[in-house]
Every structure is written in structure tokens, then in C-alpha cells.
Design goal:
By secondary structure, this protein is of the alpha/beta class. Helix content is about 60%, strand content about 20%. A five-stranded parallel beta sheet has the order 2-1-3-4-5, with helices on both faces. It is elongated, with a radius of gyration of 22 Å.
Length: about 160
């Protein structure tokens, strides 16, 4: 199961998103809910979610602050951030993508959009995981080749001596 963190200052929006995810994205589980950015950052560090759906405008810090934090955190796990907003303001959209937002959706979210979005995220996660597995498979071979070359070099050096 892929983990999802929902961030919005409106509990009704979080409940709506949660229901849509439960019905339309079976491989994803909502593991945390935050009503402000400070709580979202704490949950992000604790839960290591694969996906964060965040509102853009909230009291205190905004969703862009959360995106910036996640973007700069450079964790060992990938997190896909999706901005959910009632505003189609260009600056919000641009700033979202500056900090690596995966997508920008307008409220209210059509449940079909949730399904399509989470299918794309699932494909991205699986692609990244396959690349990591391939890298891990090739890493031991490279180590063996390097050690073998070192051994041959040492034997050659010994014979020459």
C-alpha cells in the first residue's frame, strides 16, 4: 500500500478527498491528516508518505511552504506532492511547479480526476522502484568487477616484482 498525507484547513475537504481515494485508488491508504503546514511537516517526517495532497491557501504557512520543505528535504523516499486549490491563480500554479509539484488540481475535485491522478502516481512510483532495483542489481556486479580488477593488478604487480 502506498501512503497518502492529506493537508487542508477544511475538514470537509479532507473527508471528501479521503472518500474519493478509498473508492478510486485502492492501492493507496490515507495515513495522516493535517490542518496546517507545521503538523503536515511533522507527519511527513514520521509517516514518509508517497503522496501529499495539499491545499495552497491555509492560515499561517501556505501549501507552497510545504512543497518547498519536501523539495529541499531530499529524503531517501520519493514523495509526490499534489496541490489542491480553489484558486487558478498563475502565481500559485507556477510556484507549485517550481517546488516540484506533481500536479495542480482545482476544487472541487472530480472523483474521476482522483482515479486518473493516482494511476499516474502509481506508475511513477513503480518506474522509480524498478530503476532502483536495476541499479541495485548492477551495483554488486560492478563491485565484483572492481575487486577482480584490483586483484589482477595486485597479482601482476607481485609477478613483476
Amino acid at each position: 500500500m502506498y501512503r497518502v498525507l492529506l493537508v487542508d484547513d477544511e475538514p470537509a475537504i479532507i473527508m471528501s478527498e479521503k472518500r474519493a481515494i478509498m473508492k478510486r485508488a485502492k492501492e493507496f491508504e490515507v495515513v495522516g491528516e493535517a490542518y496546517d503546514v507545521k503538523k503536515a511537516i511533522l507527519l511527513y517526517n514520521q509517516l514518509e508518505p508517497h503522496v501529499i495532497l495539499t491545499d495552497i491557501r491555509m492560515p499561517g504557512e501556505d501549501g507552497i511552504s510545504l512543497l518547498k520543505y519536501v523539495s529541499e528535504a531530499k529524503k531517501s523516499f520519493p514523495t509526490f506532492c499534489v496541490v489542491v486549490s480553489g484558486y487558478s491563480d498563475f502565481d500559485y500554479v507556477r510556484n507549485s511547479f517550481i517546488y516540484d509539484a506533481f500536479d495542480y488540481l482545482l476544487k472541487p475535485i472530480n472523483p474521476n480526476k482522483i482515479e486518473e491522478l493516482f494511476n499516474r502516481i502509481k506508475n511513477e512510483i513503480e518506474t522509480k522502484m524498478n530503476v532502483e532495483v536495476e541499479n541495485e542489481k548492477s551495483a554488486p556486479e560492478e563491485i565484483i568487477k572492481t575487486r577482480y580488477k584490483d586483484l589482477v593488478d595486485r597479482i601482476e604487480h607481485y609477478v613483476e616484482s
